[in-house]
Amino acid sequence: MKKEWPVWEVFIRTKSGLDHRHVGSIHAADGKMAIENARDVYTRRKEGVSIWVVPSKSIVANNPDEGGELFEPAMDKAYRHPTFYELPEELGHM
Amino acid sequence: MELVKELSENEKIFEAKIEAGQNIEPKDWMPEKYRSTHIRQISQHAHSEVVGMLPEGNWITRAPSLKRKVTLLAKVQDEGGHGLYLYSAAETLGISRDELYEQLLSGKAKYSSIFNYPAVTWADMGAVGWLVDGAAIMNQVMLTRTSYGPYARAMVRICKEESFHQRQGYEIMLTLCKGTDAQKKMAQDALNRWWWPSLMMFGPRDEESTHTEQAIKWKIKLKTNDELRQQFVDQTVPQATLLGLTIPDPNLKWNEERGHYDFGDLDWNEFWNVVAGNGPCNKERLEAKRKAHENGAWVREAALAYAEKQDQKAFRVAV
Amino acid sequence: MMKQAQLQYLLLLADNPLILGQRLGELCGHGPSLETDIALTNISLDLLGQVRNYLQYAAEIHGEGKTEDDFAFLRLEHEYRNVVLVEQPNTDFAWVIGRQFLFDAYHLPLLNQLATSKDSQISAIATKSLKEVQYHHRFSKEWIKRLGDGTEESHSRMQTAIRTLWPYTNELFTETEVERQMKELGVGANLQLIKTEFDAYVAEVLSEASLEKPADVWSKAQGKEGIHSEHLGYILSEMQYMQRTYPNMVW
After folding, report:
1. How far apart are CA C176 and CA C11, in angstroms?
2. Which stretches does DSSP call E strand in C135-248?
3. ipTM reported for the complex, 2 dp
4. Would the N or C end of chain C have less CB density within 10 A of its end CB?
């Protein structure tokens, strides 16, 4: 069975930004490639950007569903991707 | 006796979120139908972006000026990026990138039929940007409000980048129409070939369209196919007039009563044939992607092998 | 006379990224992965941006209403000043990476020197291009290592590509009359200095990638003098097609 390049989550802090924000994911074979791919796809060569890439399988996330009293709150590995997205600021301008 | 089905707790929570206009996120419980519909919808969208790189990509080496060359390159690159955002969103639903490619290359998955038409002159770059991206934008703006979180967020990102695509296409047409007779002729010819396929982008007639109700509930659709098609015609006719071009529809006429343009019937035989795989470029497009994927296998394997070796080296050093 | 030499030097600087950018443009949509497609397109975009800067300057110097496009699209084969290395085809991904790696190993030191050129416009263009080329340099280095030290197949393909492309590297350091003049004026780069850096860097990376550095071999590449390989004719046919078929029009 052919192996594919693992998934990495991408976090970007813009020059004027305060924190790294989750922007999406990319596939890459190693960390260096992940940074390069993230840069190519998510920053289009913007200056002064800080990029973090994390293998998706390393992300640990909680289960934020409401009605939690009916479920066992579980510290769980993210299914594939984390759920603590921030809404992109662009949404405000739409 | 009618069996009354009790909604499970999960379904209640899910339905409540949909009602309240809240996003469904990857870790939320969702009906299997929701998951499979979204995998199909999002991946089809992703495949369209990626296959869409081909008709335009083939003009990069022949662009008539340096400025046109770089803007076309940037546009095609954007489309690749959009494909990536969408594959990422689809993957959150529990399917791998390789599986998605398998579906595309085997012919199992669909992509927008418009890309099965050939881009044969430079003016096609204008027509495609103006009409095809124009039609795509109409759908895309709707989707920024769609219920599935990762899909909505990918669409916000895409919409932000998309407006340059349509403007670029229209500007190419404008330049041609203000140019020589040969250029005007080229522009009119491109419009003649891309007009009807662009209308077909909105899908079958409403009466032949399945799943519309569900799509509207889950906010994959806000308007019906025919509504969008009408909107597209209404907004595009004045744009063509401005260019001094004639839309190739003898039945196109402003209807004062309706407040819309009446337009001719589409060739539905062509529509269904192209969807079924008999379009001018269906086989070519898939063959190109298949070749790229197969020829690239050794590269992808090498990158993985190298990464593993590096990991092992690091481990040995640490130990 | 000085103006002629200056013009020729600008064309020499522009033509390498022009032809290389053109070759990379052929790959769009056909790469081994979507991510790689985007990366290679990025490089092509960067290079073509540099071309525009050089050719706009050249047009300014030439005067008589000439434009960047006149230089890009309307010269004859023997008037192009690119090295034969960048004409080499996209045979497979190892060739693409090999060609890129060898060119970047020359391009980065070249721009570092040009950043202090006595010609302020050349120095500005070079300075602006440096960040981009640093990125290309890193990209091609990492891929040489991945392919050289990946699988047996990738190693074998990468070795073949390097061995076949190697003779074309000589030309990078063969000083033409124009380059000599520009060097002496403090406008152009010193190729010997570039060669020293190139040799050390290439030896280091190839070794890291467990690739054998080919022995130096004689070659008759003279692209900088306008004597090109058979590839350039086809490249230009495609590139110049619109401007030749529809002359004197605005696009």
Report:
1. 13
2. none
3. 0.96
4. N
Residues of B in contact with A45 (CB under 8 A): none
Q: Answer whether A26 sits within 8 Å of C35, measured CB to CB.
A: yes
- Tell me the β-bridge partners of A53: A10
Give the Cα separation of C20 and B60 in Å (integer). 13
Highest mean pLDDT out of B30-34, B280-284, C243-247 = C243-247
Element spanning B255, H or E: strand B253-255
CB-hemisphere CA count at 13 Å for C104? 27
DSSP conformation class of B226: H
pLDDT at B274 over 60: yes
Percent of all residues in chain B with a pLDDT value above 70, rounded to a whole number: 96
Can you tell me the distance from the alpha carbon of B291 to that of B69, in angstroms, rounded to the nearest whole number? 25
- The DSSP bridge partners found for residue A44 are none
| Domain regions of chain A by residue span | 7-61
Is the minimum CB–CB distance between B50 and chain C shorter than 8 Å? yes
Q: What is the pLDDT of residues B224-264, one digit of tens each?
A: 899 999 999 999 999 999 999 999 999 999 999 999 999 99
The pLDDT of B2-22, averaged and rounded, is 79
Interface of B with C in 12-31 (CB under 8 A): none
Q: Please report the domains of chain C, with CATH numbers, ordered by start residue.
A: 2-245 (1.20.1260.10)
pLDDT beyond 70 at C93: yes
Distance CA C103, CA C97 (A): 10
pTM, two decimals, is 0.91
Decide: helix, strand or coil at residue A1.
Answer: coil
- Is CATH 3.90.79.10 what the domain over A7-61 is classified as, yes or no? no
Instruction: Give pLDDT tens digits for A69-83.
Output: 444 434 443 333 333
Nearest CA in chain A to B144: A91
Which residues pair with residue A52 across a beta bridge? A11
Q: What share of residues in chain B are helix, strand, coil (percent, to 5)?
A: 70, 5, 25
| Contacts with C146 from chain A: Cβ below 8 Å | 29-30, 33
Asked if A65 and B144 come within 8 Å (Cβ–Cβ), the reply is: no
Residue A67 Rama label (left phi>0; alpha psi -120 to 50; beta) = left
A73: closest CA of chain C, how far (Å)? 37
A24 forms beta bridges with A10
Residue in the block written with tokens 């054998």: C212
Q: What would the pLDDT profile of B15-55 be if each residue is shown by its tens digit?
A: 999 989 899 998 888 999 999 999 999 999 999 999 999 99
Instruction: Give the nearest partner residue to A27 out of C35, C39, C138, using CB atoms.
Output: C35
Mean pLDDT of A50-61: 89
Give chain B positions within 8 Å (CB) of A24. 84-85, 88-89, 153-154, 157
